[in-house]
Inverse folding.
């Protein structure tokens, strides 16, 4: 089943859900009912213009029927299969499932997401219990007061010849420590109450929460795009603020208007743009990726290869969990700081797409000459132009859900069926 | 060091009421207890006093119990002195860290008076109740 076939299935599903007759929708989109019937049964491709009209007639966005959403859904289904391989889910048929049973597929994908979120919440709560300084301090205070009470009470009970002076002294100590116990217990109860309120805010990793928030803004870091509420957790809010602040600095270095004009003139070459504005390459990459309606994806990683930032590009799946495909030009750039890496890449079938990836790595020496070097590598993901011919690097999202069978870079088996792609 | 006939115990504990109780219990058992509350002063106090035993709290101002323990073990003058660690932290990793650093015994709070007395006697070679007459 091709990705375009999924559009017909989804269209039919949405029309039926809205309770609109086929003939009425066809009339609303100015096409014949028979043509709509063929589209809905996946026997005709639909042009972007017609899809736009059909979506409008349904009160929806064409994006909801586009290739990207089914592709994302299929990726989620494969990820779900990967998390529980012993269940024997036919991961290679994920696309088929998404096309035939989109509701069930979304349910599975959502349950997969919920499951991951709950796991993260458990890990966060576990980490909090083990390392939270307030809890540790409250328990320490309680145990210290209890120790003093126990030791003092034992002396009072077991020492028959205790002088009145010592008795008075130890009674005073008991009085003092009982007050500490009350205060310690209240502190602990207050902490537990507060934790309950915050449980939901630790449900998602801050990076995931931030990225969901940024996606809701359309990844626009322009001023005024503050309709989406701020992320719930303080950590994700910090990430969001840092992102907006950095975008503000990037805009100041490469002002709106002048930047778009330079982009039109020189194309999306971050090195050229950086040179023109006296800025740095990573800043120019961010500027390109965060322009309103930019189709460019952007990923950042540190020297360990851990992804620090993920803005997806339509058709280029980014791993939600775990490490990325080692063939990404991002990692070639990471190994060669200061040297631009440009590569034509192809994502796996089905739904194979070609992209131009531009990678660049910058280094810092925050600890001085004698300290360790820190690296940040970035990869801009641009939809390839049809003129970008030639051999492309056959990469994937991450090994676990990559269908490419003969891959020398593979680090673990795929849960998908083998495919010679 | 710490293995002779000394009856001196160095108690490093910042909780005054716990310290008072321990000083009382050990004094009645015939021990000469010196109490200090500041962790940073502990290594020098141990060198000066030549105690038979150090009772060391885990969380202290100035210098943590673990840091003091490492300093004691690194100094030839105090390297062999038995150290009884007291802590409100009963986590296995804290116990392991203390044992790696050279703690002789590890007691978690709240402890019993009889328990701490038994540990002190055991660590000092089964010291007798020299002060029974004082009770």
């Amino acid at each position: 089943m091709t990705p375009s076939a999924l559009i017909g299935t989804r269209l039919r599903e949405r029309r039926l859900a809205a309770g609109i007759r086929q003939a009425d929708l066809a009339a609303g989109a100015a096409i014949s009912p028979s043509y709509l019937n063929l589209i809905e049964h996946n026997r005709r491709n639909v042009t972007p213009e017609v899809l736009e009209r059909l979506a409008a007639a349904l009160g929806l966005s064409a994006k909801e029927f586009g290739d990207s959403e089914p592709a994302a859904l299929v990726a989620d289904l494969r990820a779900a299969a990967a998390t529980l391989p012993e269940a024997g889910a036919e991961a290679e048929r994920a696309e088929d499932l998404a096309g035939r049973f989109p509701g069930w597929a979304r349910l599975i994908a959502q349950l997969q997401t919920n499951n991951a979120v709950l796991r993260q919440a458990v890990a966060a709560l576990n980490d909090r219990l083990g390392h939270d300084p307030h809890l540790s301090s409250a328990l320490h205070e309680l145990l210290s007061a209890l120790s003093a009470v126990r030791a003092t009470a034992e002396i009072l009970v077991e020492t028959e010849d205790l002088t009145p002076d010592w008795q008075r002294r130890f009674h005073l100590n008991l009085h003092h420590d009982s007050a500490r116990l009350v205060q310690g217990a209240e502190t602990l109860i207050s902490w537990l109450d507060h934790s309950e309120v915050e449980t939901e805010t630790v449900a998602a990793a801050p990076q995931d929460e931030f990225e969901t928030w940024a996606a809701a803004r359309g990844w626009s870091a322009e001023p005024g795009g503050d309709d989406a509420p701020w992320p719930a957790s303080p950590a994700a809010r910090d990430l969001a603020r840092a992102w907006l602040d950095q975008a503000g600095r990037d805009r100041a270095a490469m002002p709106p208007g002048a930047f778009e004009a330079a982009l039109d003139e020189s194309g999306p070459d971050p090195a050229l743009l950086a040179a023109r504005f006296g800025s740095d390459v990573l800043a120019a990459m961010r500027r390109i990726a965060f322009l309103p309606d930019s189709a460019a994806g952007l990923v950042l990683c540190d020297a360990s290869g851990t992804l620090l930032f993920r803005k997806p590009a339509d058709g280029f799946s980014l791993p939600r969990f775990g490490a990325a495909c080692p063939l990404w030009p991002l990692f070639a750039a990471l190994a060669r700081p200061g040297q631009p890496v440009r590569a034509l890449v192809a994502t796996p079938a089905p739904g194979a797409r070609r992209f131009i990836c531009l990678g660049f790595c910058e280094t810092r020496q925050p600890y001085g000459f004698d300290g360790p070097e820190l690296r940040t590598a970035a990869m801009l993901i641009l939809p390839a132009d049809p003129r970008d011919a030639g051999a492309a690097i056959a990469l994937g999202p991450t090994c676990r859900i990559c269908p490419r069978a003969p891959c020398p870079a593979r680090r673990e088996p795929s849960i998908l069926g083998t495919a010679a792609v | 060091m710490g293995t002779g006939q000394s009856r001196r115990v160095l108690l490093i504990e910042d909780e005054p009421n716990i310290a008072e109780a321990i000083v009382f219990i050990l004094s009645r058992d015939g021990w000469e207890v010196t109490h200090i509350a500041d962790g940073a002063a502990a290594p020098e106090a141990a060198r000066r006093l030549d105690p038979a035993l150090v009772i060391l709290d885990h969380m202290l101002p100035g210098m943590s119990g673990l840091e003091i323990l490492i300093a004691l073990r690194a100094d030839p003058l105090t390297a062999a002195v038995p150290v009884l660690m007291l802590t409100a932290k009963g986590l296995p990793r804290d116990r392991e860290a203390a044992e790696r650093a050279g703690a002789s015994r590890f007691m978690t709070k709240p402890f019993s008076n009889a328990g701490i007395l038994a540990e002190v006697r055991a660590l000092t070679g089964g010291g007798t109740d020299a002060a029974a007459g004082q009770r």
